[in-house]
Amino acid sequence: MSQIRQHLRKLLPDRHVLFQNRYLRWLAPYLDHPAFWSLNRRKVALAFAIGLFSGLMPGPSQMITAALLALVFRVNLPVAIVTTLYSNPLTYLPLYYLAYTYGKLLLGRVNHDTMTAVPEWSMSSPLEWLQQVADWMAGLGLPLAVGVPMLGLTFGLAGYLCVRAGWRCYIVMAWKKRKGWRGTR
């Protein structure tokens, strides 16, 4: 077994232990399929891409989207879910600004409209601030609606290619190392 698989097996939960949990036991008939836990480079790379795409989905739907897409494409479920964590409360607004700018670029509206400023944080009324942020995001409209899925697809494609290339480089280096080791005997 390659070093990458050994390392991933240490990081990812064992499915048999996971499904012994009383809260997750009911999911075992649906999720206890080897394809959802496979650690080959194609399935891991596609799961990584799915996680990057799903990480840009709104709010709590990120992990659900990643899980559903992982089930549809029959790829590694934990990798797809964990990869969504790049999007968090600290990165959410910069990612959405990037998506808005990307959407404007794709729609050819680079110089047409300006983006209003993000509402300033108010410690005295956080619920009012959240409402202002929601109104601000709704006002971004079509560029954001186009930019979010397209940026997700771009991130997914880049992630897929990086995982495939990184895995391949690691294997080539391991072959060369093994070949050099055999030659010294």
TrEMBL record:
Residues 24-176 form the DUF2062 domain. The keyword Membrane applies. The keyword Zinc-finger does not apply. The chain crosses the membrane at residues 44-73. Keywords: Membrane, Transmembrane, Transmembrane helix. It holds the Pfam family DUF2062. PANTHER family: SLL0298 PROTEIN (PTHR40547:SF1). This is DUF2062 domain-containing protein. It comes from Pseudogulbenkiania ferrooxidans 2002.
